[in-house]
Amino acid sequence: MIGEEDYDHLYKLVLVGDATVGKTHILSRYIKGTLPKAPTATIGVEFATRTVSLDAGCAVKAQIWDTAGQERYRAITSAHYRRAVGALLVYDITKPATFKSCQRWMEELRSNAEPDIVIMLVGNKVDLAEKNPGDRQVDFDAAADFASQQGLLFEEASAVTGANIKLCFDKLLKEIYNTTQHRRDREDDPTNNFQLQGRSSQTECAC
Amino acid sequence: MGQGAVQATVDETPAFLGTEATDSLPEACGVAEDAKERGSEPSQPSLRRYSVHLLEHGAAELLRTCFCPWANLRDILYADAVCKRWHQLSREEQWMEMSILHGGVTASLRRALWRHLSAVQNIEQRYQRELGVASAREAFEALLKKPLSQAKISEIERDVHRTYPSHERFEGQEGAKGRAELQEVLQATVIAEPNVGYCQGMNFVAATLLIHLGSASDAFWMLLALLESYHYKFVFAPGVPLLPLRVFQFAGVVQRCLPRLWRHLREDGHSLEIFAHQCVLTLFSYSLECRLAGISGGPADISHHLHQCKKHLRLPRHNGQLGPAAFRVLLRFDVGLGSLEELESGFQLQRLEVLLSQVSVPGEHDAQVPAVDEPLPAGLERSSSRNCFLVDGNSLRSENLPPRGGTVVGSPSTLLNQAGTKEALHVNLAELKELKVELLQFDEQTQFDVKEFRRRIAEADKELLGLLRSSAEFRMEVEDAESAWKNKQAYRKALMDAVQVAVDSARPSEPMEAAPQELVADCREKLQRLQIEILEDERRRQARLAEFNELCEDIAELKEVKQRSMLQLQSFLELRDQQRQGRLKNAVAQLMPLAPVDLN
């Protein structure tokens, strides 16, 4: 178990997506392992942290910002994207409109957050489709295609059953680690990239 | 109601204030007729009377102070009666604790007090006239009958289930009625204010009002009063235009009143603004238990709610109760109207600075020119023609003062008014550039003058250094002279001893006296010379000492000159800063001419 304050990197992540796609549920499932007892609409922004260790032997602290989904807040919430290195872009697989909005959310993210922000597309509420296949309104393949076109990571998940929730965050954090690591190496020494890569990951992650 | 009444209550608490029946209004006041004349509700004579009395005697200010949210109405009235001892009272923690434990304004009084303070009656009457019905309830029902699109209804439905889901009023099967009422309140609000529409956050406010006021109709009218009289429609309208200003004010108050909390957040890399959004959007009902949210004396005055952020401030608790330490924290929340207005103009200046940072003028450092399409904060936009910026006037200023109960006269307006539409101010790019050039020149001049000041200070410094160096030389010289003097004294003593010995040992009978005679003479001669030398040295030393003292005076004088120059520089900088601020303030008035706030 890693102590809260024992970490090598701090990553700011944001949770975005239309209202009622289940952003707060996903966060609660990931952080606490349970669903919120009294689910209320998120107003403004809230945040939580969790420290995890990556395969590379590094501990990263994820600072996850949960934002309100309503359209009229966007001018305000987009200010919270600043310095975010990763995002979970959530839609509801039973509501096609929430999937359609993803394009706009993505643009919003790319123009307000770090330029090389890593985005994970998450199709939430698969439990509903498992119970009743007729409820599914967004095809897995269509979403996967969209994700690969746009260069996003993609998973389907369920905050209610907990399926794939941890996986989503782990994949995202790992990808962020890889991209930031690459960038750091490039900045360190553009000519001797290869050699440094091995060394720097060793020296920085002496944990 | 004159001064006499105040005097009469100074020494003794009015009879009803002493009663324990907090939930029933005292009837023994005998002011019903008085109240009727003032056009108040006959059912609340004493309350009306005392509210008017409070307002008339400047106690509205008192209501806005930090004590109010916690104070029982009885306490407020009592406090008003003992106004002169108010400050003293407010420092007595026990008294504060008592009023908070009493649970603030009692249920029946709260409704009346809120109605009075928000002047909701005027709004009700206006709608009644326009809809041609006789009562507020009927007006509410008539509004609900108007059509509303399914999309809007389901947008509200989505959140109704997520508003205080564990509160008895809205929970489970028994909560169905409460949820339906909440839905009605929100739908009626969207119908009445179509340009505002539904905004997340409203649901918590509406639910809190439902809990405290009981009926859906009452909750609806109070919510409407919040939107109209307290400018909340601009907080909730699309794009939430007024939110940044409110949050700025909130953060400014916290920065001043709770600097430690502020610094703590800053050190963690957070800004308070982020957490303040939900406080402002839900009037603190989101972060407080809804029961507590009702404690406040008036529903909407922002300064009230600034005091209520207990949860966010993590006030120290003792056995689950707010302890004296918490009161000390709250007491520091001294929010006056003046500070809110000051923060408002600070916000406007900040917005102007943002716009200025967006234009580039020749002669400016290239590094300062931002990326062309950096996102602008809410309320600011680039025009499509790119020759000006559009500033939403509603995002820049607001009514900081709640309406004075009973004095706001509803003006006739169309039922579906234009609330929430953008008040677009066009800020010309050319004018901004002009201002920026002017400011750059101003700054350049300032820099030039500052350089001149610095040069003078540096000169004084240099001279001072030279003087200090020669004073050090002087000191060494004095030390040298001193040791030379000591040496000479020792030599003199040795000579004198020698002479003494020679004189002592020379017996008159002795034939060989020539040699010692000569020796003695020699010694005497040396002694004499030495004496002269010592005197000479002493004279020289005195002269040098005088010089040295003069030098010291020079040094002190130079130091003073330097000190003075530095003070001058400081006050010069302050003056220039003031001038710059003044120029910017003028520019705000000039470039973003804001119509005065008109609540009617």
Automatic annotation (TrEMBL), chain A:
The keyword Lipoprotein applies. One of its GO terms (molecular function) is GTP binding. Residues 182-202 are annotated as: Disordered. InterPro entries: P-loop_NTPase, Rab_GTPases_membrane_traffic, Small_GTP-bd, Small_GTPase. Residues 191-202 have a biased composition (Polar residues). The keyword GTP-binding applies. Keywords: GTP-binding, Lipoprotein, Membrane, Nucleotide-binding, Prenylation. It is a lipid-anchor. Belongs to the small GTPase superfamily. Rab family. This is Rab11A protein. It is found in: Membrane.
UniProtKB/TrEMBL annotation, chain B:
Transmembrane segments: none annotated. Residues 104-305 form the Rab-GAP TBC domain. SUPFAM superfamilies: Ypt/Rab-GAP domain of gyp1p. It comes from the Eukaryota. GO terms for molecular function: GTPase activator activity; small GTPase binding. InterPro entries: Rab-GAP-TBC_dom, Rab-GAP_TBC_sf, Rab_GAP_TBC_domain. PANTHER family: GTPASE ACTIVATING PROTEIN AND CENTROSOME-ASSOCIATED, ISOFORM B (PTHR47219:SF9), RAB GTPASE-ACTIVATING PROTEIN 1-LIKE (PTHR47219). This is EVI5L protein. It comes from Symbiodinium necroappetens. The lineage of its organism: Eukaryota, Sar, Alveolata, Dinophyceae, Suessiales.
